[in-house]
Amino acid sequence: MVEPTEREKLLDEAHQVRRAAAILPLFDADGLNPEWWDHMMRARALEARAKGLGAGSG
Questions:
Q1: 31: region left, alpha or beta (phi > 0 left; psi from -120 to 50 alpha)
Q2: Longest dimension (CA), the chain
Q3: Residues of the chain with pLDDT > 90: what percent?
Q4: CA–CA separation, 34 and 20 (whole Å)
Q5: How is the chain split into domains, by residue range?
Q6: For the segment 4-28, what is each residue's pLDDT rounded down to a tens digit?
Q7: How far apart are CA 12 and CA 51, in angstroms?
Q8: C-alpha dist (Å) from residue 17 to 33, 44, 55
Q9: C-alpha angle 6/47/11, rounded to 5°?
Q10: Which helix (H) or strand (E) is 54 found in, with range?
Q11: How far apart are CA 8 and CA 42, in angstroms?
């Protein structure tokens, strides 16, 4: 079996974080749910890192 690349690992983690965010409510009593927001920002950061790793390949 081939080991996943660092880029693939980051994208997989981002996907898992987004799935975790999907079960959280978007809004709470005070407005936008900060826990949901934190998950989405983490996923975006992981995707940005993966994109940077993929920029030099291909």
A1: left
A2: 48
A3: 86
A4: 14
A5: 6-51
A6: 999 999 999 999 999 999 999 999 9
A7: 13
A8: 15, 10, 23
A9: 45
A10: helix 34-54
A11: 16
